[in-house]
Amino acid sequence: MDTVFIHGLRVDAQIGIYRRERTTTQPVEIDLDIALPNNRGFTSGKVSDTIDYAVVVDRIVKALAKTRFGLVEEMAEAIASMLIKDFAAPRVRIRIAKLGILRNASRVGISIERTVTAGETARTGHWQSKEWPSGSNPFADSDTSP
């Protein structure tokens, strides 16, 4: 399957469950592999016939500026849902790394892959909601810093 990829996208995000993470942003690095819904762009030469990676980056940067996530898992799922719903991507692979969080590791994070099967409708994203992506406060069980 043909894909558009965006690797090494660095964004300051509101993410984390610990007290020290609640008052600031921190850098995350995002890698995206987005399957194309069709092959028209290969012959038409029109950006409107493919997935415009500049639009994808703009949407992600703006969305992350407005939403706080407790876990990278929630952030990855929200990005996957947005790509499937808004860009008609039949398959996405997303890797998100928090940078410099652990003393002995340069990055930690999650890698997910989501595929839309025949007859399945895309899940809705959480970007418009002021609620926590999971529906509950991710900080409820982590009142103290490690």
Count of individual domains = 1
- Shape descriptor: elongated
Output the strand order for the largest sheet: 3-1-2-4-5
The parts where pLDDT drops under 50 for at least 5 residues are 122-146
Total DSSP E strands = 5
CA-atom Rg in angstroms: 16 Å
By CATH, the superfamily comes out as GTP cyclohydrolase I, C-terminal domain/NADPH-dependent 7-cyano-7-deazaguanine reductase, N-terminal domain
Enter the CATH topology name. Answer: GTP Cyclohydrolase I, domain 2
In terms of DSSP E residues, the strand content is: 25-35%
Name given to the CATH architecture: 2-Layer Sandwich
Helix and strand pattern: EEHHEHEE
DSSP helix count?
A: 3
CATH classification class: Alpha Beta
Helix content: 10-25%
Please give the largest β-sheet: 5 strands, mixed
Report the mean per-residue pLDDT as an integer.
Answer: 83
Structural class: alpha+beta
Distance between the termini: 43 Å
Give a verbal description of the structure.
The chain has a single domain (3-115), classed as GTP cyclohydrolase I, C-terminal domain/NADPH-dependent 7-cyano-7-deazaguanine reductase, N-terminal domain (GTP Cyclohydrolase I, domain 2, 2-Layer Sandwich). The protein is 23% helix and 29% strand. It is built from three helices and five strands, in the order ββααβαββ. It has helices spanning 41-44, 53-66, 72-87, and strands spanning 3-15, 26-35, 68-69, 91-99, 107-115. It has a five-stranded mixed β-sheet. It starts with a strand and ends in a 31-residue tail after the last strand.
